[in-house]
Every structure is written in structure tokens, then in C-alpha cells.
Amino acid sequence: GGFPLEGTRTCLQVLKGMVRVGGSPEMSNLEWRRTSRIPDGGRAVYEDEVICLALQFLATVDQVNLPNLVGAELLCRRHQLIREAYRLSPSSPDYSA
């Protein structure tokens, strides 16, 4: 069958953006934390860190083609939702999208 998620695939664009901003998913997370002024203890900080590390390990250790994986697409979409929620409202992010 086809790709089971609705909407346009975004994983490749997200990964390219991570590399452009920080050089890797892990460094992208660190740069986001530094520039977004999110409190260090915030749940979103840890969730985004885990997502970025999972993507990095999938790409570098497991060496899979992330844009072809449904699981990687879900991780990238969640990563985007977290970042967009904080960009729009840092003091009160909305994750309902």
C-alpha cells in the first residue's frame, strides 16, 4: 500500500533544516534551546531532545532512510508541532494542531 499518513511528507525538509541550523538533529535541539528561551525543565525541551536523538541515531547508527519511514515522519511532525507551538506562544504553547 501507500503511505498511511495524511498530508505532505515533511521528514526530509525537517532533517535538512536540522543540519542547516545545527549540523545534526542533536545540535539543532541544543541551538533551539539556547535561542528560544524555554525553561530548561520544560517538558517540551526533553521531548524535543528525545525526538532529535532518535532521529540522529536512526540516521547514523541504524543507517536507515528516514524519509521512507512512517515512524520517522511521525517524529518529525511532532518535532515541528513542538517548535511551532513555542514560536507562536512561548509562554503558553498550544499543541492542539
Describe this structure in words.
- The structure is a single chain.
- The chain has 97 residues and is mainly alpha-helical.
- 63% of the residues lie in helices and 0% in strands.
- It is built from four helices and no strands.
- The chain has helices at 11-22, 25-36, 43-60, 70-88.
- α1 crosses α2 (25-36).
- The longest helix has 19 residues, at 70-88.
- The radius of gyration is 13 Å and the shape is globular.
- The mean pLDDT is 92.
Search tags:
0% strand, 63% helix, 4 helices, 97 residues, single chain, mainly alpha
Brief digest:
The protein is mostly helical. 63% of the residues lie in helices and 0% in strands. It has helices at 11-22, 25-36, 43-60, 70-88.
SSE layout:
Elements: H1 11-22, H2 25-36, H3 43-60, H4 70-88
Helix pairs in contact: 1-2, 2-3, 3-4
- In angstroms, what separates the terminal alpha carbons? 27 Å
Question: What would the principal axes of the Cα set say about the shape?
Answer: globular
Total helical segments: 4
Rg, rounded, reads: 13 Å
How does the helix and strand content classify structurally? mainly alpha
Low-confidence stretches: none
The share of residues in extended strands comes to under 5%
Oligomer: single chain
